[in-house]
Each structure stands twice: as C-alpha cells, then as structure tokens.
Amino acid sequence: MPDGANAILVRRRRREQPAGPRTTRVTLGSRPLAVLAAVFALAQLILVRPVLGLGWDEIVYVSQVTSHHPAAFFSAPRSRGVSLLVAPVASWSSSVPLLRVYLALLSGLALYLALRSWRGLFPTRVLVVGGALFASLWLTLFYGPQAMPNYWVAIGALISVGCFLRARAGRSARAVLWGLAAGAALMAWMRPTDAVYVAVPLLVLALARRHWHILLVLAAGLAAGAVPWVIEAYAGHGGLGERLAEASRIQGGLGWQIAVDDQLRSLGGRALCRPCTGPMPNPLVTLWWFALPVLAGLGLVVAGRARRLGRTLVPLACATTAALPYLFMIGYAAPRFLQPAYALLAIPVADALWHLVRRPGGAWRPVAATLVALCLAGHLAAQLAVLHGAVSRNTESRRDWGRTADALHRLGVRPPCLLTGHEAIPIGYYTGCSSGATSGNNENITVAGILRTADRLPVAHLAPAGGAPPRYARSWPVHRISDLDVRVAPGP
C-alpha cells in the first residue's frame, strides 16, 4: 500500500512538472508586448498631451453621452461605438484631460490584447516590432487618445484576423472563437462598413474551406456590433438602404475615384484633406508609404519559404480590402482611414525586416542590420516631426474655438443658446450652445425653427469675415470675432 501511494505521488508530480516552465514561457513571451503597450500609452500622454481640446468629430461623438453639452447632429455615416466607448468618463465629467488619459491607457491595453491574439502565429520578436511599427506612426499616436473610431477598427481587425488564423489551426478553440467574435463586434460597433471590408477575405476563406463554426462566429460578431446601427437606420433614416445612400452622399458619393494622391498629401499631418490641394509632403515623410507594399511582398516570400504562407497572406488580403474603398472609392482623404490596413500590414512587414537582418541560422547580418536600424531611426524621426506639427496646429485651432466661445459669452450668447453657420458644431460645443444647419450634411433645423428659437433663447449666426449672411440673419447686429462675422439675434 505505501508503494502504491508513493507511485501515485510520483505520477502526480510528473504531470505537474511541465506546467511551471510552460507558464514561465507564456509570461516571458507576454512581457515584451506589455512593455510596448505601456510605452505606447506613455508616449501619447507626453507627445500629444492631455490638454489637447476636442476636435470636430470628437465633439459629435462625446456630446451624445455627456450631460454638460447639447448633443450635436449625428449624421448617417457615424456609429455609436465611440460614444459608448467614452461614456464611462464623459457621462459624468466634462474634463478633457481626464478623457485623454482614459483613452490613452485604454488604447495601450487594447494594443497589448490585439498583439497577444497573434501569439503562436509569429515569434514574439516579430509581434513586438510589428506593434512598434504601427504604434510609432504619427497618426496612431495622434488618434490613440482621441474619441475617434478608426484606431479601434484597427484593433478589432488585428484581433479578428489573429483569432481567425488560430481558430483555423485549432488552437485554444473556445477562447479563440470568443476573441474572433469580440474583434468582429468591435469593428462593426465602431464602423460597420469598414468591418465588412476587413472581414470579406475571412468570410470567403471560411466559406471556401467549410469552416462552418468559424464562419458562424465571425458573422455573429459582425451582426452583434452592427445591430445598433441597423436599428437606428430604421428608426431615424427610413431604412438600411436609405441610410447607406445618405452616408454615401455625405461622403461625396462612393464610386470609382482615385484618392491615392490625396492620402499621400494627408501624410504630412493633415487631419482631413477635403478638398485635397497643395503640394506633396517632403519625400522623407512619405517614403515609408512606398516601402510598405515592397516589404509586405517580401514578407509573403519569406512566409512561403518557411511554409507558413496562410498566416501572412490572410492579413495582407484583409489589409487590401480594408484600404481599397479609401484609395479608389472616395473623393477625399484622412490618414486615419487607413489605420486598419496599416495595423494588419505591420506584422508581415516586421517579419520581412527580421529576415533582412538575421540569417536562417539566427546569426546577424551586420551590414543589413545597420542599414535597417538607420532607416527605422530616420522613419521614427520623420513621424515625430509630423506629429509635433499636427499637435501644434490642432491645439491652436481648438484654442481659437475656445476664444470665440468666450467672446460669444461676452456678447450675451450663453447656454441655453443656438449657433448656426460656419463651424457651428465645434464652436457651439465650446460655447455650450446647440448647433443648427438649414442645409448641407448636418441639416437639422428650418429657418422657421431658428426664428422661433430666437424668440426664446440667444441665437447667433457665424460666417467668415465678409461673407454673405443668410436672409434670416441679415438684419441682426454684426460683431467681428477674430476672422468671423457674428450676427446675434435681437434679444427675446
């Protein structure tokens, strides 16, 4: 009997022994990703700074959930995902620095989770470099702490594609399937149309290979994230087709339109390039954009030689479908539109860079490693220079809105109030007023409605200096505030 008891203990110890080293390897493999995510969050707080005021689109999203400002008009292309993302802070506090810190920390955590979903598909060193390439882009650092949807679509794309590849390989099936559903839901929650473009290759591949459980989970995740947008389409836009048509009209009409040059111009630090005129940025700023497809192609060759073509080809296919509408179907550009494509390309590109600097046996290639390091250092310097310019310009423009709001307060335009005309949405938010437009993409009120409001509340119309006012405001006293003509309706 004692021998039997000892034998049981020995067998139990043997079963338990491998768990220790494996747990250690998992922990050590995750630590570099956690460090990268922490550096990314800290860099946002230092380089972008929490004092940056809210931008136009941010104001639309944040105002939907805050009780401190009237809700701005919510147009057809927008989705409620960002509003719900900021609700834990914006619903009870009007502090912009607090919101920035919250979003910076959340974006760092999200990057860590997204890269972890790729563990086992690529070595940790590839994931760290890929994450660093994406995180060090000026547009990633700039939009990480902002209430905008594109970074979160990129995170959802990384999670979805990583979990899809792991599910196909049969690794940790239940947890991975939950991750696939969550990533798809996050994308659709933020921008349903972008989610569809990213997911097309995954849906086609799952259908072609008859991975029915993966197909069902992916479709369920997309549907779950898109449900609020679809419900709102029927509740406020006359149906799904009508909302899609209205969204297309607001975006200038979707169709064959080459916006490649517009995207290049936007890389110089322009948040929105509409209309996209002016000279191209310095070639040092755009060089990485041309190197990206070359390095992605090299990553595909490396994967083919290593007999792991699928795990590289799938993210490249998803990056391509995510980028196509913003390169060839829309008449303007914003650098943030391509964030999902950049995130998906980063991992194959990192794989290619490691192939360039190390031999198959693991030894370094000194010359190649030096050249790659110098190129990456120059690329980082260019990104930080563009980021500095973008932060400075946006900080000053948002301070201008605040100064205009202070001047309006001195003219007696105080909450509750209504602003119409030029930049009424952002200036209205800073003033504490509602905003109204009788035409255009943000049309939400009639002339009669404006006049009725003026009988009860302070109302002002904003126009560029020297601009012609609308008929209803021509008789209102005019005041010059900076480069604006402000016409204030006679008091009720």
From TrEMBL:
It comes from the Bacteria. The chain crosses the membrane at residues 33-52, 98-115, 127-144, 150-167, 212-231, 287-306, 313-334, 369-391. Keywords: Membrane, Transmembrane, Transmembrane helix. This is Membrane protein. It comes from Streptomyces variegatus.
